[in-house]
Specification:
The complex is a heterodimer of chains A (304) and B (370). Chain A is mainly α and 304 residues long. In chain A, helix 1 packs across helix 10 and helix 11 runs antiparallel to helix 13. Chain B has 370 residues and is mainly α. Chain B is built from 14 helices and two strands. The longest helix of chain B has 30 residues. The two termini of chain B are 20 Å apart. The chains are: A mainly alpha (304), B mainly alpha (370). Chains A and B meet through helix 3, helix 4, helix 7, helix 9 and helix 10 of A and helix 5, helix 6, helix 11 and helix 13 of B.
């Protein structure tokens, strides 16, 4: 029973960065922008968060630095994709390649250093049997991510601004004709996405594996991108998907711990294989995807 | 939301009636010049003399014949991968997993060599090398074929699938050097036996590491030029990428384009991996590529998706790799500076490419207000 509680806790822990990043990307994509630079933004934010957290001993400042780094990276993307109307796929790739290079460059002097950041258990609740360990003994960012998910659901479906954002993802021409500043709103959406990816990246280097190694993010940015498709662009399903992927990641360690005779390298493939399997399952019906995907996703829009 | 300001810019982009051909060729030059400019600023920010920095980064690696042969050595895998990627991008198939396909080819080729290189050779070294190269092509094509299959049968996004397969290939390589391909007398290091000299690619010139794979790469570029510009299959691919509806009307199968481009691309990346393993590396190591497959994406774009152009692109990116090593040994900067230059080049190239379709018009502030 105690083992199971620890397993649930670990799954939530590893699902949290995926959730935060995927929620940010969801907002991007709902506004019609496909930013494939998630991996790069998370990498740069991870090292920025780690560097600041390491110097100041303040995880909060670390998270703030991560968010700012993510926003700076996404504004680079925004300038190219929105102002110069470049191909979004190529620009996102460029952001990922640039981010990998930049993070390795900054991080070279931090390689091998580590941090100790304590979780923030919720008083009283964390003393409950089972659920105390499984649900209520996490770092506060975990609870923040749940709040973020709820806030985004409320924003997208219950506010006028959310309606405008979704309409821009469906038909930027119509929104433009109604007088909405399509480019500015998309810019804002990208900044939000960058901040989310930044917090997610900082979570990885501050809480999840509190140290820095090159390529620390290990494809989680891409998995978060896959999650938005998996969730058919709905925030509640992003939460579900993140937990699912979190448990797949933890399952490999669990298999190793109970001594199943599969080489560790093969087990480490699990999250990536799971991503492919999930993509295959969700995409096999093209109509289902077409029905749910923001109609203008990835298409550049130039006013006037 | 209405209150968010419209972005007011000091310039306007005016759609050209016809895309500028000149700009298409000038854009990479401009992007490279801008990259060097920003690179100089970077050196300055790091407290180095920018001119010394650029000199070390760009000129040191090509000062001697030995250095140039190293440049050409690194150009080989970059161009081979980029040749295939160019075909994919022409067909609008976003294969970004060349790195994984390269690794798959390397594993396949390395396995073949290790099978025959056992002290009692049954085949001459040259034959085994040909076999290993073919195994590399097959390995890479198989790896890319998974992406094609999942896209074709299940509509799965090829960008994400090919990238996930890259992570899987890296882990597979780790498994192979820790398991089946591990050197039993290697003091438990995760690596294979060192191949015997007769199972290594012969050098093009005595005393140089530049191997026969470079010549294969040049021939491949020529062949691909004919394929792209002179063959019907190449024409079908290009039309399918530029105008999918026109291609469908003409009866060109988009499924065929998907399979052709991915298999060609995987094959090229695979042989690049085979050449790395049987060339400069000479054994199977846990890491057989410093990101050649990703850098090749930039090579393909810099080379304008043109097989001859990729050679120029390959030379530039290869220079960046060597420049990074030089910056580390001479200036004490992290060699990861290579990645920064790579990213900057691609960003600036994409920005400059805007000028192919648009004309830049400066607008007065008064005009921008209205």
């Amino acid at each position: 029973m105690e083992n199971l509680a620890a397993l649930v806790a670990a799954s939530i822990n590893s699902g949290t960065p995926l959730l935060i990043a995927a929620l940010g990307l969801l907002i991007n994509e709902r506004a019609g922008v496909l930013n494939l630079g998630a991996e790069g933004m998370m990498l740069v934010a991870a090292i920025a968060g780690f560097a600041v957290g390491y110097q100041t001993h303040s995880p909060l400042l670390g998270f703030a630095a991560g968010a700012v780094a993510g926003m700076l990276m996404s504004s680079l993307f925004a300038w190219l994709a929105l102002v110069l109307a470049t191909n979004q796929v190529a620009t996102g790739l460029a952001l990922s390649i640039f981010g990998a290079g930049l993070s390795a460059f900054i991080g070279q002097s931090f390689v091998g250093m580590s941090l100790t950041i304590k979780p923030t258990p919720i008083p009283y609740l964390s003393e409950l049997p089972f659920v105390g360990v499984a649900l209520f003994s996490h770092h506060w960012i975990v609870y923040f991510s749940l709040f973020l998910c709820a806030a985004i659901i409320w924003f997208l479906y219950r506010t006028r601004a959310g309606l405008v954002l979704r309409s821009i993802g469906e038909s930027p021409e119509s929104a433009h004709a109604l007088g909405y500043p399509v480019r500015s709103i998309r810019f804002a959406a990208l900044l939000f996405g960058g901040a989310c990816c930044g917090v997610a990246g900082a979570y990885l280097s501050l809480v999840y594996t509190p140290m820095w190694v090159e390529g620390l993010v290990a494809g989680r940015g891409w998995i978060a991108l896959a999650l938005t498709t998996f969730a058919t662009w709905r925030p509640a399903r992003v939460l579900l998907g993140a937990l699912l992927f979190g448990s797949v990641t933890i399952l490999q360690f669990h298999f190793q711990a109970i001594g199943i005779a599969i080489p560790s390298q093969i087990l480490s493939m699990l999250p990536y294989v799971a991503t492919i399997v999930v993509l295959v399952l969700i995409s096999r019906n093209p109509d289902w995807i077409r029905l749910n995907m923001p109609a203008s996703l990835g298409k550049p829009f130039r006013p006037g | 939301m209405r209150k968010l300001p419209h972005v007011a810019l000091p310039f306007r982009l005016e759609l050209r009636a016809v895309p500028s051909r000149n700009m298409a060729y000038f854009s990479p030059v401009l992007a490279l010049a801008l990259t060097l400019f920003f690179g100089a600023l970077l050196f300055l920010a790091l407290g180095k003399n920018p001119l010394t920095g650029l000199q070390v980064f760009l000129l040191e690696p090509i000062r001697s014949w030995a250095a140039i042969s190293e440049l050409l050595l690194k150009t080989t895998p970059l161009v081979l991968c980029a040749l295939g990627l160019s075909i994919c991008y022409r067909a609008n198939v976003w294969n970004i997993g060349a790195e994984g396909q390269l690794i798959a080819g390397g594993i396949a080729a390395g396995s073949v060599i290790l099978m025959f290189d056992n002290g009692s050779p049954v085949l001459p070294g040259g034959m085994v090398l040909v076999l290993a190269s073919l195994a590399g092509v097959l390995g890479g094509a198989l790896w890319a074929g998974i992406t094609a299959l999942l896209r074709d049968r299940f509509n799965a996004n090829e960008i994400l699938v090919s990238l996930m397969l890259t992570y899987i290939a890296q882990l597979l390589l780790m498994y192979m050097v820790n398991g089946p391909l591990k050197d039993p007398h290697g003091m438990n290091f995760p690596q294979s036996r060192v191949f015997s000299p007769e199972f290594l690619l012969p050098p093009l010139f005595a005393g140089s590491r530049l191997h026969i794979g470079f010549a294969v790469m040049l021939i491949a570029s020529a062949v691909m030029t004919v394929f792209v510009y002179r063959s019907f299959a190449g024409y079908r691919l290009t039309v399918g990428g530029l105008a999918p509806l026109a291609a469908r009307y003409a009866g060109f199968s988009s499924r065929r384009a998907l399979w052709t481009s991915l298999l060609i691309s995987g094959g090229f990346a695979g042989i690049a991996g085979a050449f790395e393993v049987t060339g400069p590396i000479g054994q199977v190591l846990p890491s057989i590529s410093p990101g050649y497959g990703f850098a090749a994406i930039i090579v393909a774009f810099v080379g304008r998706l043109n097989p001859i152009g990729t050679i120029f692109g390959g030379l530039i990116l290869s220079l960046f790799y060597l420049g990074g090593e030089m910056a580390q040994s001479r200036l004490g900067l992290p060699s990861a500076i290579t990645g920064l230059f790579q990213g900057m080049l691609l960003f600036l190239l994409l920005a400059c490419d805007t000028l192919i379709n648009y004309r830049l018009r400066w607008t007065s502030p008064a005009h921008a207000q209205s």
